[in-house]
Structure formats: C-alpha cells, structure tokens
Amino acid sequence: MLGWAAAVVAVAAGIALSPDVRAIAGGALREITVESVLVTVPVQLASTLICAAALWVLGPGVSYWGSVASRVLRDAGGNLLVIVPGLGELIGARSLVLSGGTARRALVASALDVVAETLAQIPFICLALMVLPRLGSHWDIDRSTLDWLAIGVGAGLVFAIAIWALSRRSERGLAARLLSALAAQVVAAWHEWRQRHGALPAAILLHLIAWAMGGVQVWLSARALGLPLSLVDAIILESAAYAVRAILFIVPAGVGVQEAGFVVAGSAFGLSPEQSLGLSLVLRARDVLLGVPVLLLWPVAEWRGQKAVGGPAGGG
C-alpha cells in the first residue's frame, strides 16, 4: 500500500499546484455515482472468466476454475499491490501451484499468458490512432486539460521512480535467489514452452475479446452518468487511454497516466475533463471494489492450498 500512498501524494501535490486541476478533480469526484461503478462489475467478471479461459488453454496443469482463481488474484495484485512490479503475475503463478499445478508448468503458462495478452493488446491499441483525426478537429484543449496531462504523466513517473527506489535494495538478492532456483529448470521449461505455444493463437483471441469488453464497461458507465458516448467511441476512448499506459509501461498500474490519457482522448469525443476523469476513476473504483475482498481472502487460499499440497510449494 506504500505504492498507492506515493501515488496519492504525487497526484495531490500536482492538484494543489493548479487551481484548474483542483477544479477538475473535484468535478470528476462529483460525477461518479454508485450505479456507474456497479454497472461495470458484471462485464468485468465476464472479462475475467474469458482471461481465465485464455490461461487454461495454455495448459497450466489445473482445472478451469483453478485458472479463474489465478486470474482473479493476478488482477487484484496487479491493480492494488503495485509496490512490487510484477507481483500480480507472481501471485497468479503461485495460485496455479496451490491449485495443484507444478511450479514449472505454472511458470510457463503464466509467461505465455502475458505474451498472449500483450499481443492481443496491439490491435486494440491501434484503435487509438482513430483519436488523432478527432483531436485535430477538436484541438481547443484548454489549459486545465494540459495541466492534467502534465500532472498525470508526471505523477506516474514520480510513482515509478518511488517504486524503483523502494525495491532497489532487495532487487539484487531477489533476482539472485530466483535465478538460483530456476537455473536447473530452464531447459525443461523451454521444452514445455515449445510444446504449448501452439495454443497461443486461441489465447490471443480470447484476450482480444476481453480487451474489447473493457470498452463496453466504459460505455455502460458513460450511460449511467448520462454522457453522450457510443459503444464504438467508448472502445476507442479506452484503447487510447490504455495506449498511453502501454507507452509508459514503467508506471505500475498506470497510476496517473491512465487518467491523463482519458482526459486528453475524451476531449476528442466532446467530453469535458471532469467527465473523462470521472470515467477513469470509475474504473479505479471498480478495481478496488473487486480487488480488496480477493486480497483479504488470499491468506485463506494460501493456507488451504498449502494444506492440500502438503507443503509450502508445489513440485517442479
């Protein structure tokens, strides 16, 4: 949670420096309603099930529901426990082991899943190019919007630097331990990778569908807030915001960067900075709503998993 504290401090400092940005942040918070958050939940759950199917077809050595548990934990960890980059993926792989998979298969399947999700994001991000002509015809962005862009990106970079500084001491020791533990299994893991990468196209397709469902959530939220945004425009808007996140991938969970992307891209669709920022904050609230209960139950899952496998870790 130190990571979130650093982000809050960085964003708060930026807001305090600009009256215009202060006004936008206050307006965005007033835009958000309980309904606008809740309407995203069913679609997000469906998206999670699809992402779990993508993991499952890659052969992690567990049941489909074991893959669901892994994906749920990965998303919760990645969205909320951003103090350690990649912790969500590690938690997801650990969940596969606790569900009965071997450490090697869990590692390979998790790595392939990340590859599939990244490749699926490429055509989705290409939709962001459709925003550029709109920005050209709507390039009357006021000073406050530009302030939000600068503060969002700046806060995100400050956040990334803070995360790097906090983890710098333990990074070398952790890397050494991981290399030592995995060195003997590299060849075997490579063979498993070659055997299972044939399922990659199916996983990519499933992840592409899941990415598009993120745009559906933006559309439903916009409707709940009474914003004039079509389904296609909502998908393009989200793709533009996530394109910014992908470019500045060093920022954990895209803190600040996602918000800046929404504000700038939203102007191309006639949305005010307050409305665009409100949509981004709705997605953040959704992540908290779904992620916190999962993380609170994680120790229970860890205990039950260890009890089931008879030890602290699965076999290799």
UniProtKB/TrEMBL annotation:
Residue intervals passing through the bilayer: 39-59, 80-98, 118-136, 148-167, 202-222, 242-269
Bilayer disposition of the protein: Multi-pass membrane protein
Keywords noted in UniProt: Cell membrane, Membrane, Transmembrane, Transmembrane helix
Pfam families to which the protein is assigned, alphabetical: LPG_synthase_TM (PF03706)
Keyword flag DNA-binding: no
Places the protein is found: Cell membrane
Tagged with keyword Hydrolase: no
GO cellular component terms, semicolon-separated: plasma membrane
Protein name: Uncharacterized protein
